[in-house]
Amino acid sequence: MTARVGSPAQNAATDAPPLLRAHLALTRDAFALDLTLNLAVGEVLALLGPNGSGKSTVLELLAGLLAPDTGTVLLGGVVLTRGGAGRGAETAAGRVLVAPERRGIGLLGQDALLFPHLSARANVEFAIRVGGASASPELAPHRDVAVMTAPETGSRYGRYRSGHPFRARSRAAGRVDPSHQPHQLARSRAAIRAEADAWLARVGLAGRGDALPAELSGGQQQRVALARALAARPRVLLLDEPLAALDAETAPEMRQLIREQLAATGTSAILVTHDVVDAVVLADRVAVLHEGRIIDVGATAAVLEAPRNPFVAALAGVNLVVGRIVDDAVVAPDGRIFRVRPADAAALSAPPIPAPPVPAPGSAALATEPDSAPDAALADSVPFAPTGSGPAAAAVFRPSAVVVQTERPQHASPRNVWPATITGIEPGSGGVRLRTSGNPQIIAEVTAASVAELGLGVGSNVWLSVKATEVSAHRR
């Protein structure tokens, strides 16, 4: 994996040590996780990756809800996890697994997980008592914090709930017994109540302290959950898709609120999300997970603007073709040529390979496999190149840069041109998205008027083209 600008590998010379350092290794059946990550003070790191890549498992390991087979977790130089409970673990005497409530790490998921029998204020008061925060949220030192969850909720964390040391539950009602909460400080109930109300005001719920969770909307419940998580003064807050359950109108408000409150409190955070907007708005850096490994890491803009794998490309809404740089093009494994910006090709240049035959005037610069073209005779005139041994690279271009025509285009400027068949039509952010045949599948975005004018539908044979100046190339 090549380090990007803003990645830990390139920032190693900085004097400030990371707040959180972790190496985690865990094997469960066919899944194996093995990664290292760092988190700076006040930084937000987003974990991106497809389902099953290990994102939520990482959060559970950091929160102390799971023990790794091997590895370490250090927070502010303090060992929270060392060794593990399984394969290759150190001797029992050398292992460390600090309980979740004593790690200084909080957790906020897509479900608010509020205590249903407690008011909004009482939910936040619980966190204040547990965390032992001072009356001034801005100045309070970080203290122990529980991973707090409601007793009857069926979330992915439910299996850890029954033995939680901060909750002595009535078997009949599942109620919290305040006498079992540690870190009780010599503070008046009025002071704790005032602090809880202050936190609710910060998340836009002033005057709603007496409301039970059932009396609040989903967005309001998540605001209470955020206030509760921050009121416990965690040194690191784990955000597991906190906006996934919110509607399209509520999510942007909550996203902005999380951003503001993380900045106001100086809280470091690790965010798991499938929404690229979450990463863009909230994260300073992005780490991309695939099959339990970090395959890319760097500043958010760098990772999203120059994706190195198909998942991130799809997340960022761009087309991506992987291959090798040869001369002024990225050559795909099947020999197809994607000509790119001259500056990008020069920056990633490699020894040239034998040039393909020069196409006749008007022939395509690039095509899908001949047997997938609308007209095999036309596809025969499209040049292909040997794969060569240039540096691995990815060609990236926006769907809106792809021109769709029903007849083969004639261009004076350098363009990539290839035949394809439309396999899907769906709404897009700027019009209509057309999915087309080929491997990789190329997506074009056009206006609804163009679809109607050209009479396009699933199964239509078309010609696609994109200017070389619209295609960027990035080393993989």
What is the level 1 CATH name of the largest domain? Alpha Beta
Distance between the termini: 8 Å
Question: If strands are numbered along the chain, what order do they take across the biggest sheet?
Answer: 7-8-9-3-10-11
Percentage of residues in strands: 25-35%
Instruction: Indicate the CATH architecture of the largest domain.
Output: 3-Layer(aba) Sandwich
Low-confidence stretches: 7-14, 86-91, 133-185, 350-386
| Radius of gyration, CA atoms, in whole angstroms | 27 Å
Description:
The protein has 476 residues and is α+β, with helices and mostly antiparallel strands. It has 2 domains: 20-305, 3-Layer(aba) Sandwich (Rossmann fold), CATH 3.40.50.300; 317-475, Beta Barrel (OB fold (Dihydrolipoamide Acetyltransferase, E2P)). 21% of the residues lie in helices and 26% in strands. It contains 11 helices and 21 strands. The strands form 4 sheets. Strands 7-8-9-3-10-11 form a 6-stranded mixed beta sheet, sandwiched between helices. A 5-stranded antiparallel beta sheet has the order 2-1-4-5-6, covered by helices on one side. A hairpin with a 5-residue loop joins strand 13 (329-331) and strand 14 (337-339). Helix 2 (120-131) packs across helix 3 (189-202). It is globular and about 80 Å long. Residues 411-475 form the Mop domain. One of its GO terms (molecular function) is ATP hydrolysis activity. InterPro entries: AAA+_ATPase, ABC_SmlMolc_Importer, ABC_transporter-like_ATP-bd, ABC_transporter-like_CS, Mo/tungstate-bd_C_term_dom, Mop_domain, P-loop_NTPase, Transp-assoc_OB_typ1. This is ATP-binding cassette domain-containing protein. It comes from Cryobacterium frigoriphilum.
